[in-house]
Amino acid sequence: MQVYRLAVLSDNYIFVLHDTQKNIAAAIDPAEAEPVLRQLEATGAELVALFNTHHHHDHVGGNRRLMERFPNLRIYGGAEDFGRIPGQNVFLREGDRVSFASSVGEVFFVPGHTRAHIAYYFHPNAPDEPGDLFCGDTLFAGGCGRLFEGSPSQMVSSLGKLRSLPDNTRVWCAHEYTLKNLQFALTVDGNNPDLQARYAQVKESRRRDEATIPSILGIEKRTNPFLRWDNPDLQAAVKSQSAVQTFARLRGMKDNF
Ligand code: ZN
Ligand code: FE
């Protein structure tokens, strides 16, 4: 399975999965239809599925047009998003499985950014390959989504599910926010050498206008403060001893950063 990354709007990414054997494609969070249609033209692939993570317009804005072009599309989203995702015809819950070509994706219910948000984890097709996590606006490279419809404790449990995936997992989040996220991370975890090294790398990538997505989950676990609510240094930095309170304080600080 080949993954194409399309940069759209001001800082969104749409991901197009392409199976070269069957020449079929699926789009993750199509913010717009045009860039997806252009990508399909380039490969000649038939679009068979849309995988939506949540209902926000910058994740579903292209659904309708793509549906008109491909009337048999399967349009996946969270069961709790009923009525909020245009054209949705498959309603998913925690533990459900989806398939695309020969790949199997596992569904995680990850409320917090919205009350219905889901993430898709596509298992590796061979033991030495990484899996692919499509996590929308839940986990970002170096950060996490704002809490619009959920609580800190919900988000800790949601991010905890994603954190339990293998270190080599590729993290395909929906926005290019990495540099700003790491700038914030340095204010609370500045002595972390892994974070310092990552910041230098990301700064250089962005200077060259290169994407920082996908990131690697193992690096997120070591450098993303929003996956480190139980780390003693971070707890001390925000003067908290509980996981949820640590997370809540970090999120509150980031909201005002
Ligand atoms: Zn969103
Ligand atoms: Fe978004």
What is the general shape? Answer: globular
The oligomeric state of the chains shown is single chain
Helix content: 25-40%
Element-by-element helix/strand order: EEEHEHHEEEEEEEEHEHHEHHH
Describe this structure in words.
The strands form three sheets. Strands 1-2-3-4-5-6 form a six-stranded mixed β-sheet, covered by helices on one side. Strands 7-8-9-10-13-14 form a six-stranded mixed β-sheet. The chain is of the alpha/beta class and about 260 residues long. Helix content is about 35%, strand content about 25%. It has one domain: Ribonuclease Z/Hydroxyacylglutathione hydrolase-like (Metallo-beta-lactamase, Chain A), CATH 3.60.15.10. It contains nine helices and 14 strands. It starts with a strand and ends with a helix. It binds zinc ion (ZN) and fe (iii) ion (FE).
